[in-house]
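Project channel, design review

CF: Before we commit to the Kyrpidia tusciae constructs, I'd like one complete example in the thread so the newer folks can see what an input/output pair looks like. Taking Bifunctional protein GlmU.
RD: sounds good, go ahead.
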Amino acid sequence: MTQRNAVVLAAGLGTRMKSRRHKVVHEVCGQPMIRHVVDHLKASQVDRIVVVVGHLAEQVRAVLGDEVEYVFQERALGTGHAVLQTAPLLEGTEGQTLVVCGDTPLIRPETFQRLADVQKMTGAAAAVLTAVVDHPEGYGRIVRDGDQIRAIVEEKDADEQIRAIREVNAGTYCFDTEQLFAAVRRLDNGNGQGEYYLTDCAEILQKDGRRVTPVLLEDAGEMAGVNDRVQLAAVEESMRRRILEYWMREGVTVVDPRSTYVDSDVVIGRDTVIFPGTWLQAGTRIGEDCRIGPAARLSASVVEDGVQVEQSVVLGSTLRSGCTVGPFAYVRPGSDVGPGAKIGDFVEVKNAVIGAGTKAAHLTYIGDADVGEGVVLGCGTITVNYDGVQKHRTRIGDRTFVGCNSNLVAPLTVGADAYVAAGSTITEDVPDGAMAIARERQINKEGYTAKLQHKLRGRRMKSEESRES
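CF: and here is what came back for Bifunctional protein GlmU:
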């Protein structure tokens, strides 16, 4: 039985990143770049994926877990040597083996599929992804013999004539599995780097009378790899543009793509408008007819239809249909804002359930609370949830009105259809339909201002006499 394998090369040191993190775990549009590579391979009907790891292998394993297999390259002796480490797992199997780099997240699933299809249809020992570029510096050059590849020459080993070639190696291959391992076992390291180049397989196979076929990329930008932070930013920009173009074609309005950031796994419904300065982070789902932004950040959150979020942060929460958030609101993890509810300016919600139609218009903190439907929380309302040791919950019944500048000291239950007078600090439960007032009695001291001013004048005169003496 034939199978399609993939070998992902992820054993490089990545020294130019100048990071304690493995190069391939740096994120591109919300996902580690190797996560993109593996997901795109899976989408191209690969049956088995083997990742070659080395330095910082544990970081790669933390990203991919048990969904792939691993082999360890103890010494970085080149790409051919890296592939050879997979022989105990793949050698002797029938079918195809894709070889890809873990730092090239822009190669699309359909490109992997086309490469594999060409190798299979032509019966070639290998199909090599290539691109024609204006500035080929740094890439291996494709030396052709008609419509076949005679050799792939690394730039450091190339003469001036070969360096003038503009068709370059994209670093992605599809081999007949049997021919791959027959070739890599014959590699030598007689080159300027003293490494075993996988690219030398092309010349070995060609001399054996085998076919090595180029597959030209339609978009040369797909082959972009990441070696430093500058290239990381460039790849991020390319993927971000690709993501935004997809959603705009799916019926989403993006007012200014240059200032809008949408991670790769985000889902957005039709007729939603994304305003400038918005960042939709990993795990976020946006419904239809929403208005998000300007200057909004949503992460790992579910937003139902018809929601508005303006100049606010929403993390790990659910916003139900028709509710509004912002401007300048902060919805923290574990919150559920009900249908038609309003979370207004400078309101913070944390681990709280907000009922349908409830309004917290401004300057309010709702933490560890269950708030019913149709509740009005006046300006300055605070659920006092922390006693210095542990958190406690506040429960507020339907249609209750809480006046401005009120403290609700948890654990506390305020019943339905109740009133809390403005300026109150409530420490005991409030029954349904009751009104709670918890204020110090007001005292007016007549003539106090004149007495105070007389006392202050006396102090100033004594101070001046003291300085003169």
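RD: helpful, thanks. The domain at 2-223 is CATH 3.90.550.10 (Spore Coat Polysaccharide Biosynthesis Protein SpsA; Chain A).
CF: The mean pLDDT is 96.
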